[in-house]
From TrEMBL:
<dbReference type="InterPro" id="IPR017926">
    <property type="entry name" value="GATASE"/>
</dbReference>
<dbReference type="GO" id="GO:0016787">
    <property type="term" value="F:hydrolase activity"/>
</dbReference>
<protein>
    <submittedName>
        <fullName>Type 1 glutamine amidotransferase</fullName>
        <ecNumber>3.4.-.-</ecNumber>
    </submittedName>
</protein>
<feature type="domain" description="Glutamine amidotransferase">
    <location>
        <begin position="33"/>
        <end position="174"/>
    </location>
</feature>
<dbReference type="InterPro" id="IPR044992">
    <property type="entry name" value="ChyE-like"/>
</dbReference>
<dbReference type="InterPro" id="IPR029062">
    <property type="entry name" value="Class_I_gatase-like"/>
</dbReference>
<keyword id="KW-0378">Hydrolase</keyword>
<dbReference type="Pfam" id="PF00117">
    <property type="entry name" value="GATase"/>
</dbReference>
<keyword id="KW-0315">Glutamine amidotransferase</keyword>
Length: 240
């Protein structure tokens, strides 16, 4: 099995996702889009697409010319029923491809915050855990994409997670986070730390209990297992 990972910044790598993929026997092709002359891979020659976060906006095609090609690649993957997971900017890309408006959020969110699961008892959708604390690090937000089902929300950002079809999920949160990846993001985004009420300090971010990392990584485990099973959840906490 093969997974393609689209990476948009050197300090926003796949984190826990890479460990999970290797444990499951996947080979990985990481496409470093921020490097010059990077060629996009053949998306039809893969079993899974991961679209990571990044500091740019989906509207920045003039600054990042590869964005147009990337959007076409993501759409081609989804149209060809390839399981796809978008993280933060990756989720925004998927949402924009399917008609959602991407705009600045009223408040930047940087920190560990609770999100609320949205239940759909009559639909076979992925279920985000209730009362879940996750890492949010974003300044843009997305409306719901065409055909999307809302999976999670919070008070500041009504759309945190969505599902399209049986095997496409977008997460505004960074549940693939590891302590090493978090430190890299802090080091490279030092200018974002202000006194805004929804921006936690580096000390607050790094002092999160180990359970936060474990629970978020478990969410990634469950999401990937779910989309690879084409909508048939394997984890007992996510029954149909």
């Amino acid at each position: 099995m093969k997974a393609i990972i689209l990476q948009h910044a050197s300090h926003e790598g796949p984190g826990y996702i890479l460990s999970w993929l290797h444990e499951q026997g996947f080979t990985t092709d990481i496409c470093f889009l921020y490097k010059s002359k990077t060629e996009l891979p053949d998306i039809l020659n893969t079993n899974l697409l991961i679209v990571l976060g990044g500091p740019m906006s989906v509207h920045d095609e003039a600054t990042y010319p590869w964005l147009k090609k990337e959007k076409k690649l993501i759409k081609k993957a989804i149209e060809n029923n390839i399981p796809t997971l978008g993280i933060c900017f990756g989720a925004q890309l998927i949402a924009s491809i399917y008609g959602a408006e991407i705009k600045s959020a009223p408040q930047k969110e940087i920190g560990w915050f609770p999100i609320q699961a949205v239940e759909h008892p009559k639909k076979k959708t992925f279920r985000v855990p209730q009362n879940f604390n996750t890492l949010l690090w974003h300044q843009d937000k997305f409306d719901m994409p065409e055909g999307g089902v809302l999976l999670a929300s919070n008070d500041m950002c009504p759309n945190i997670a969505f599902q399209i079809n049986k095997n496409v999920i977008g997460l505004q949160c960074h549940s693939h986070i590891t302590p090493y990846l978090l430190q890299a993001m802090i080091n490279n985004y030092s200018s974002v730390f202000t006194n805004d009420p929804y921006i936690q300090s580096p000390q607050q971010l790094l002092s999160a209990p180990t359970s936060f990392f474990i629970q978020n990584n478990q969410l990634i485990d469950d999401v990937l297992s779910y989309i690879l099973a084409k909508g048939k959840p394997k984890h007992p906490s996510h029954p149909e």
